[in-house]
Amino acid sequence: MTRRDFAWHRMDSEKNLMVINSFLMFEGKLDMQRLVSTIAHRLPNYPRFTQKVVTRMGLPRWIEDTRFDILKHIQRSDLSEQLSPYELQQKLTAMAHEPLESGRPLWHMSVIDQVGTGYAIVFRVHHCITDGLGLIHVLNHLTDDNDSHGESPSMTGHPHSAEMVLQSVCSRLARSLSWLKIAAHVTRLSLLWPDAKTRLKAPLTGEKQLVWLPPLQIDQVRNMAKRMGVTLNDVWVAAVSGALREYLIEQGEQLDGRSLRAAVTFNLREKTNAFQLGNEFGLVALELPTNVDNPRLRLKEANQRMNAIKCSHQPQATMAFLSLAGCLPRSLQNFALNLFTSKGSVVLTNIEGPSHARYLAGSKMTDLICWVPQAGVMGVGFAFISYAGQIQLALFVDTDLVKFPERLMSLTYAAFAELEHATKLSVVEKTEAEVVTNELQISSLDKAASTS
């Protein structure tokens, strides 16, 4: 077990569990026997799902669980009647409070019948097993690209046949300079002032709430990005910034001065290497443009600040910090983690899910939602995951920090609509300016011709 994954393993606390909670919805009638048979055949292709964590001579290790029984990891919830959206939300929130059972592989699936027109699976995986990109690889391996279900999965990207893509080898001097830059970033991050004192930095209670809304169409968000020459992630950052600004103003905060800071996940792994699982990402400390009132300017600021980070070694620095934290005694790891997480108020993650519909045991997956856990003293997490032409927004918060999570989620939704209007208006203004410029040029040419 890598020291970095060991750091994630030890990061659980009473107020923040390091568990990735995913919610998968399917069409059709549940065939439990077929579902369990498919998962039992495919999931163990990743050894981490049949292994447990032990520490020997102070060294963390993955070892095979000789008593592994997949039926202990897949539980069915038989309901007498269909759950309402509120009841479903409360059920998922209650599950998110439950720690995974130690002493065995750190994952669990709850199958809930009578959800919508079909059924759902709540897939909970401890962060020490993998990150978001690795989890998507697992999901692709569990599922098929059509409803012609067979016992064996596709060999495309199969963990037993996939080959690792090696990183290009740098010169010794280049590696030394890179590590110096990483060390400088770790030092700079540790010396940052704590984030702005708002109600989002109140002490955690551990009482959590999961929230989500109907998905957005991915083409709608892509068009916003295209109009302004930015990325999907920039639009996401700008929308969350706008929502946080409006929510905190409604709660009586003043945000026209200092901006809030977010910990934004930054993938550092080749996608083709995701079959290895583990954690290969960094966190960047991003100054959110929450102090910018104009949505268009907010989007430009988000783009400029993200571009500056992409050119730095900050993501590598935080990944190196996590590796170092895994070598420390647990108490020192917790101290260092609290020090770093005091620098931000929220966690933001952006996960690229399957681009086309997937099928599990012959049933079509209609929706995919994922909630990002928070660590240390942070208690607000926003997740953005794409799936089959849709983008699903999800919020996971400590309710003492965000007393009205549904309101914050609806403001995030509204912020996307505001950005869409602003980017369309920008295109109209640009077109009108070009027309005026052309008319002025034609008028100048006409005057020059008449004079001659």
Automatic annotation (TrEMBL):
Its EC number is 2.3.1.20. One of its GO terms (biological process) is triglyceride biosynthetic process. This is diacylglycerol O-acyltransferase. Belongs to the long-chain O-acyltransferase family. The keyword Transferase applies. Pfam families: WS_DGAT_C (PF06974), WS_DGAT_cat (PF03007). InterPro entries: CAT-like_dom_sf, O-acyltransferase_WSD1-like, O-acyltransferase_WSD1_C, O-acyltransferase_WSD1_N. Signal peptide: none annotated. Gene3D superfamilies: Chloramphenicol acetyltransferase-like domain, Nonribosomal peptide synthetase, condensation domain. GO terms for molecular function: diacylglycerol O-acyltransferase activity. Residues 278-419 form the O-acyltransferase WSD1 C-terminal domain. Residues 23-235 form the O-acyltransferase WSD1-like N-terminal domain. The keyword Cell membrane does not apply. GO terms for cellular component: plasma membrane. Pathway: Lipid metabolism; Glycerolipid metabolism; triacylglycerol biosynthesis. Keywords: Acyltransferase, Glycerol metabolism, Transferase. It catalyses: an acyl-CoA + a 1,2-diacyl-sn-glycerol = a triacyl-sn-glycerol + CoA.
